Amino acid sequence: MSNTVNGTQEVASSTEQGTRSTQATRWEKRDSTWVISLFGTAVGAGILFLPINAGMGGFWPLVVMALLVGPMTYLAHRGLARFVLSSKKPNADITEVVEEHFGVGAGKLITLLYFFAIYPIVLIYGVGITNTVESFMVNQLQMVAPPRWLLSIVLIMGMMSVMLAGEKLMLKVTEVLVYPLIVILAGISLYLIPDWTGAALEQVPSAKDFATTLWLTIPVLVFSFNHSPAISSFSLAQRRDHGDQAVEKADAILKRTSMVLLGFVMFFVFSCVMSLTPAQLAEAKAQNIAVLSYLANQHASPLISYFGPLVAFVAIVSSFFGHYLGAREGLKGMIVQNMRKSGKEPNAKKVEMFIIAFFILTLWGTAVANPSILGMIESLGGPIIATILFIMPMYAIKRVPAMAKYQGHISNAFVALMGTIAISAILYQLVG
């Protein structure tokens, strides 16, 4: 009887594993939804400035960047997802995995850094969404905007309500937002083709200028394609849905995400750069305006002046969702670690309520204050994000037994090198 029961359990277990293996190799609708969600996290407000920052050095460095950014994006995020999935605990998020592999002290440090790298970006999006909607109401709709304190809290509560409703609604809303974003990006890229000139092609920098441009622009590419804040939640969802096949499924989704990002974003960048001269790009940078705003001023195009704010709105909201996931995870990790150190067992409901109140109040306060220093805060978080995304998973492959199976691949050296280059460039720009 016992042997029969054991045999039945083994067959059931084998059947379940076989089903999960089939699911891991078969592409499903929810996989496409995750691709769209991760795309939305990456394509934040940064894309509106990417053509200016990446294109000022001319066309040829941009070609090399396009060849590098695909492998950089895929391999770095794959490494981080594999790191999260290397835990023995089925529901461990990134903060718990760091503690498990590197000890309590390192876990606290990384959790602290992780939170303070992502949290300022969440605040930036609170300010950005308020400014975008306020500007659209005044300039395009010719309306009198409501008081800033009222407009900002309505917008912030709108974004937060989607997050509080859960993962399914967040993915659904992101999907609804990001598909139009992809269509508009492609549409604007095609719309600009008749304005392409050879000005960018004629600028051939010296070898030194070429290398310097490439070096200083790599961080811009890293953060314009960065979807690391959502990787921990994404990885846990794959483990929940696919069990032992989670790594295989995560790899497949991240590869598609990188391909979609590379195709649509770099086409948009090339199209903008080809339709403007290096002098115009420098002028746009000096004016500190998004590339679509500059193009609208140059062309007096109602199409671009209408779609520009729409792209900014969709990009900010979709990216807010992914960054909020990461910041919430970091704050929760810090609270739980400190409570357990004090000998208290955290009450999950109370912790969640505190986190919600903290984000609503700080987002609202920052949006009302409308500070101009947030771009600087974002750049200060750059080295931390690059370290967590590029360096930490590669270090773990060397040091953590659970990740030893990933050793010996040339891709590991490539990711570590690109991460080091990005960090050195950011630090150079901060010091300079």
UniProtKB/TrEMBL annotation:
This protein's UniProt keywords: Amino-acid transport, Cell inner membrane, Cell membrane, Membrane, Symport, Transmembrane, Transmembrane helix, Transport
InterPro entries: Amino_acid_transport_2, Hydroxy_aa_transpt
Signal peptide: none
Subcellular location: Cell inner membrane
Chemical reaction(s) catalysed: L-serine(in) + H(+)(in) = L-serine(out) + H(+)(out)
Membrane topology: Multi-pass membrane protein
Listed transmembrane segments: 33-52, 58-76, 109-129, 149-165, 177-194, 214-237, 258-276, 303-327, 348-367, 373-397, 409-431
Top-rank taxon: Bacteria
Main location as per UniProt: membrane
Biased composition (Polar residues): 1-25
Region listing for Disordered, in residue ranges: 1-26
NCBIfam families the UniProt entry points to: stp (TIGR00814)
Protein name per the record: HAAAP family serine/threonine permease
